[in-house]
Structure formats: C-alpha cells, structure tokens
Amino acid sequence: MVSLSILDYILIIAFFIITLSIGVYVSKKAGRSSSEFFLSGKTMPWWLLGVSMVATTFSTDTPNLVTDIVRTNGVSGNWVWWAFLITGLLTVFVYAKLWRKSNVNTDIEFYEFRYGGKPATFLRKFRAIYLGVIFNVITMSAVTLAAIKIGGIMLGLEPWQTVVSAGFITVAFSALGGFKGVVYTDFILFFVAMGGAIGAAYYLVNLPEVGGIEAIMLNENVMDKLSILPDFSNKNALITLFIIPLAVQWWSSWYPGAEPGGGGYIAQRMLAAKDENHAIGATFFFNIMHYALRPWPWILVALASLVVFPDLASIQEAFPNITDDKLGHDLAYSAMLTKLPSGLLGLVLASLIAAYMSTISTQLNWGSSYIVYDFYKQQINPKASEKRLVAVGRLSTVVLMVISALFALLLQNALQLFELLLVFGAGTGLIFILRWFWWRINAWSEITAMFASGILSILLKLTPLGDYLFKSEESVFVSYWEYPLVVLTTTVIWLMATYATQPESKEVLQSFYRKIQPGGPGWEKVISEANAEGVSLKTSDEKWSVPSGIAAMLIGCVLIYSCMFATGYWIYGDYNYAIGLTVVAAISGVLLKNVWKNIRTTIL
Length: 604
Fold this sequence. Notes:
Blueprint lengths: L5 H25 L3 H6 L6 H12 L3 H13 L5 H4 L1 H19 L8 H4 L2 H39 L3 H47 L7 H6 L16 H18 L11 H9 L3 H18 L1 H14 L3 H7 L12 H7 L6 H37 L5 H23 L5 H11 L4 H6 L8 H20 L1 H7 L11 H19 L5 H11 L7 H9 L13 H27 L2 H22 L8
C-alpha cells in the first residue's frame, strides 16, 4: 500500500472532473437519437476513431496480462496475442470498407442482411445476448479484476470499494455521453495512459535495486526471459507460443478486439466512420499503435519485476493483505508501481484509471447497442421511439456494469480468463472471414459453429474430461493439441452443417452482393445465375481488390513486426538486429505504400 500526496490527489481528481465534464457536455446531443448515442451519427474522422480503438484496448488487465505472460513464459510468450496482428491487418485492407458499405448499426444486424428467414432471426437474437451480455460481462470482469488487484496493492482497498468507486464514474459518463462521450474521452485517456506507462517503465527500470536495463539483462531471473522468439529446441514452447498462434489461432478464433473479418467494438468504430476511407484509416492506425509502439513499457516493467519480486512468495511477503485466491504473477505490475514517487504515482494511477474507464465505457456502449438494436427493438418493442431506445441504452449500460462488477469478485487472474475466451471462440473465425466471399455459407453454419465451439470448450476447460486428455500424466494427447482439436472439430461440424442445409435464398444473396460488391470466385455462381435471368449485380467493372489487400496485409505485418522488434533490440542494446530490422521496416513501408495504390479504396 502506498501513501498518496496532495499532488497525486490533485492529478486524479482533475482527471475525474475532465472525464465527467465530457460526458455531461455531449449528453444532450447523444440523447437525440439511438444513432447518435451508439454511433455518433456516423460522422467520426479516422484519427479520432483510431485513437479510441487504441485507448479501448489499453485496459487495466492488459499490463497485468503481459506481466503474467512475461514472468511465466518470457517475452516470447506474447506471441499468443501478437499473432492477432494478422487478423487486424486483414480487417484493415479487406474488411473495413465492406463493413462501412453495409451501413448497419451493429455488426450483429449484419446477420439479417447476409442471411434470411428464421435461422437469421434466431442468430441475431442469440448473438445479441451471447456477445452483448455474456461475453461482454466476462471481458469487463477481467478488466475490473485487474482494477481490484491494483486497488488492493496500491491503495489497500477492499475489492468492493474498488468496484464501487471505479465503476460509478465510468458508468456515469458512459450512460450520459453515449458513443461520442466515449470517443472524446478516449482521446484524453490515451495520452494519459500512454504517458503513465512510459513514465513508470523509465523510473522502475532505473530503481537502485533494479540497476537499469543492462543490469536487468544480466540478472539470472531475467536472462532466460528476454528472447523475442521462443526457444526452437523446446518443442512444447515452440508449438504453443509460436506455431499455433501464427498458423491457426489468428484466423480460427473469435476474440474481443481481434475478430477475424472485423467485429465487436472494432466494427462499431468502423461503422461510425465518415466513410470507407476513414474506416480503413482508423483500423490501420490502431494496429500500428497497438502492436508496434505500446507493448514495451509493460514488458520492461515485467522484466524489472523479476529482479524485485522473483517469485510469488516474495509478492506475498511484501503484500500480506492480498488473499490467496487473488495471488498471481499478474500482481507484479501493481507491486512495482508502489515504488513510484509522488507526482509520477498520481499520473500513473490516473493512467490506470484511464485505461480502466476507456475499456469499460466502450464495452458498456457496445454491449448496450446489441441489447437495444438487436434484442429490444427487434423482439420487444419494434415501434420504440428514439427517446425510448436511448433510455433503454442507458439503463442497460448500468445493468451491464453491475453484473460484471459482481462477477469480477469471483475471478482469480487475467491469463486464466484470456485462455478461456480464446478456446471458447475457437473454430468460428474462418466463418467470419469467408461469409463475405463465399455464397454457400448460411445462418446454420454460424449457429452450429457457435454451439460446437462453446460446448467443446466447456467440456475441455471446465470438466474432468479436459484434465484427463490434456493435463494428467496418463494424458492421451499433449496439452498443445487442445486448441487445434477444438478448431478442427468445430470446423468439420460447421462445414457438414453448411452442406446439409439449404443455401440462403436467391433474393437474399443477390441483395447482399448488390449492396456490398464483395467480388471474387466465391460469388461466381450467384452472378452467373443472375445474369441468366437478365439481372445485373455488378455495379462497376473495377478489379477485385482482395488480392492486393492480402498483399498489403502481409507487407503490413512485416512493417509492424519489424518496428516492434526493432524497438526491443534498441532497448536491449543489440544494435545489429536493431539496425537491420529498422531497415526492413523502412523498405516494407515503401512497398506497402505502392501496393496500397492498387486497392480500390485509399485513405484520404
């Protein structure tokens, strides 16, 4: 527990006043209509949306998660989420413009646009509750759990005290200001959070007991954690931390913020953009900031924590008030922050509060948009006025916050939840990628994939079957086959369901193609049948842009990974690798600019 100075309190109180003021300031305009409340009238510029996406993923559980990963599996363990860059850039160069063309209010509304009949209606209703409530609550609970641990270690707060104090202000400006309040606040939250993370990393790495970056790299507790790539001689680490994420995970799993083909709050921001150009610009800016620039302050603090708190026992000894059910390696980040001086401590606490508020406010607005558009308006009150829809949105915002706060009190650590969410969506991602470009996918494809993945995940994660197959000494399989098994089984099931059920009607397919113009060989059958009937579906003869988009995605991956790893090697003082990767980043940047010219939609 640390003692806050008057300066620390001034910084934190000033931050609270600013964020609440933004919510109050935009509340009147946000309440005019549901479109204003959830999408800000679809008039947002790319730079503001891009910063908002970065701020949203800058949550309190993220530095805790990264710290847990680094202390457990080393820096290379971060490939479990670094691999999602491929998903992100596929969204940038292929799917962003498709989402903006759809002009829907939520990504779940897409279901009754792409599919038809009762299965599409069921899918939209079920996903609204499944994602808007269940998944959303779980995600917010992980973020709130991190806030509980930070409050417990740094301020000596009881879990309920942290939940009430942090949640009240967040739900207040979220309910008042709607999406515009969230995005405007995110702009401030991003700079506060980033400044706090960098300031904390610089100070903590140079603590006398740490000794600076050179001393960290020579410390016996750290030396085997530094590699950016996993140990290729360690078969288990190589497969679980590198091969599976890069070969399977990025395209096969639905995960909040990294949905294959776009979705969730990323889709919400693309739908709120002024046009297709701004949707692309926002998502590209987000991926650069999220992967290339942001991880290293957290990684440095995690490495420094191994010097100060080499094991869980040392954390327990330093903070005896932490209960056993909350003790984990993710606590090391908060433990290190207790060593910050006055002023910087207030800034970092404000930055952590900012990270919490940004993520929670986005999840609340996004989740309540599902409840309002895809459940309440569709099933309960189709003739609801705009004023009523906004009122329901505000009420659901409060309810979601309360449920997630209660659930957070039952959780133990962030990595535990990350793994559960990852497996829970395994095998569904390929559908989200292909449904835009293959006419044969129907509503039953998604329904069966969703249930198959969920049931398999529950069996393997929460029942003795999973312990027998993957964790016992008599294990039938080694543990790293757990995720691919769910992916393979789910994929086989939804493919069988696709071919065993009727395709979507001709009218639905033609209407979708006419509006979106996805192109590609996957729609040739639909186009040919339409031409035979004298119906023209193509609105232009422009070249299909997806091949160029995939090329841009691959080059973009080289660019961003090179930037991220070059930064690491500059910090490590390994200048040969650092210079080489910097050159690679520069060359790939030039190539990306040239390839981008071949994509139909260009920024600005």
